[in-house]
Write a structure and sequence with these properties.
Helix content: over 70%
Largest sheet: 2 strands, antiparallel
Distance between the termini: 49 Å
CATH architecture: Up-down Bundle
Strand content: under 5%
Length: 158
Amino acid sequence: MSVARPIVPPASPLTRVGARRDRLSAAAAVVGALGLAIAAYLTYVHYAKLHAFCLAGDACERVQTSRFSTLASVPVALIGIVGYATILLSLLARGATGRLVTAGLCAFGVCLSAYLTWAELFRIHAVCQWCVASAVLMCVLLGVAAARVVTGPAALRR
């Protein structure tokens, strides 16, 4: 006795792109959540006046207490919380505009991370492992956000 199997048409290019974009969105959410966790930890350390766990001796402490640890009297770590949270929220926006907003936010985050890395290397002369991890995560986020823009439905119509 044979069992009738339904005929399932092959996935269209639009379906494959949508699935890829969903995987990219999920990857961005995971990376963004890791960045948010780092920023939350450093914000807690800042306000609790604790020493961050640091594998490089006192490097994190030197960075956390430097003049570069605040922008307009706001701790950079708190700016990180707002930035990562905004990126995560932007992932919920649908369409090309949502993808472009996410990519723009990530590009801004990479620029800010580059400035802070420059300050660590050439002004503070200490490198914080948490800051490096955050900068790497922001670069990964930018790459994923760019891939989401490129794999949008409009990319198929070219």
